[in-house]
Design a protein that fits this description.
Blueprint: H1 3-7, H2 10-38, H3 43-65, H4 68-73, E1 77-80, E2 98-100, H5 101-125, H6 144-169, H7 173-200, H8 202-223, H9 230-259
Antiparallel strand pairs: 1-2
Helix pairs in contact: 2-3, 2-6, 2-7, 2-8, 3-6, 3-7, 5-6, 5-8, 7-8, 8-9
Length: about 260
């Protein structure tokens, strides 16, 4: 279908709007990770690393969109463990024993998120346990290059998820391209306010790390064929965020009362 035909097609506009919303929602995971990671850098490098990381996400997704046929083939099994145990209610394995490249990428990304979030939680709870480092240079500190590398690794995982979602919703490449560009642009716009909000409210850091643990577990489960509806995850995140917003408002109200 030509570009002019798409512009005059209400179905195409509806598909574009729906896909933009889906891409923005799927980008929340990546945005939380980038915000947490960038806040570990010196203040002068934070905006730059967020811009570079999100720009890399855009480049990756545009490259992957140009290889849709190859991406679609990544869901085909590449090996089968042939396990006969762990049978479900119908005599079938309760998890997949045949793994595709997509499954392996999701599992690796989930393990990385679990490791990263657990390390950050440990450091938050016990900041003095620096493994021999000085207080001025704790072991949790990262360099600019390390931050970019970690963001790039997670960008790959989330980009595959994003592109496969786009493929499942429409077969029009221009719609996919516009949706990805708009969604990544929204991520870029929201990255600094979100990172600053997390920086100003330390209790939100633990909540965000809990989200990353949950997302990591979901990625691993998805890689093993146990599909958890993402709506459940995002509703839980929204509910927890709402409760934390009430806590922040209550703390500010008490602070104003004490100030008077």
């Amino acid at each position: 279908m030509s570009i002019l035909a798409l512009l005059s097609d209400p179905v195409a506009w509806a598909a574009l709007a729906t896909l933009i919303v889906m891409e923005v929602v799927l980008g929340i995971d990546n945005l939380v990770f980038i915000s947490l990671l960038s806040n570990k850098l010196p203040e002068g490098q934070r905006v730059r690393v967020r811009r570079v990381g999100i720009s890399l996400a855009l480049v990756l997704r545009l490259i992957l969109l140009s290889t849709i046929a190859w991406i679609a083939g990544l869901v085909e099994p590449v090996f089968d463990l042939g396990l006969t145990g762990a049978l479900g209610d119908h005599g079938q394995p309760s998890f997949e024993t045949a793994f595709s490249v997509r499954d392996l990428i999701l599992i690796a990304g989930g393990v990385f998120l679990l490791w990263k979030a657990t390390s950050e939680i440990h450091h938050t709870l016990d900041p003095n346990d620096s493994g021999g480092e000085t207080a001025e240079k704790p072991s949790i500190a990262i360099s600019f290059g390390s931050a970019i590398l970690q963001i790039l690794l997670l960008d790959i995982v989330f980009s595959f998820d994003s592109i496969l979602t786009a493929i499942g919703m429409t077969d029009q490449l221009p719609i996919m391209l516009v949706a990805v560009v708009v969604a990544v642009g929204a991520m870029l716009w929201a990255s600094t306010p979100l990172a600053n909000f997390i920086e100003r409210n330390p209790t939100v850091v633990m909540l965000a790390l809990g989200f990353l643990l949950m997302i990591g577990a979901m990625l691993i489960a998805d890689g093993f064929g146990v599909h958890v509806p993402k709506g459940y995850i995002y509703v839980a995140m929204a509910f927890s965020g709402g409760v934390e917003a009430l806590n922040i408002a209550a703390r500010r109200s008490r602070a104003r009362t004490r100030g008077h």
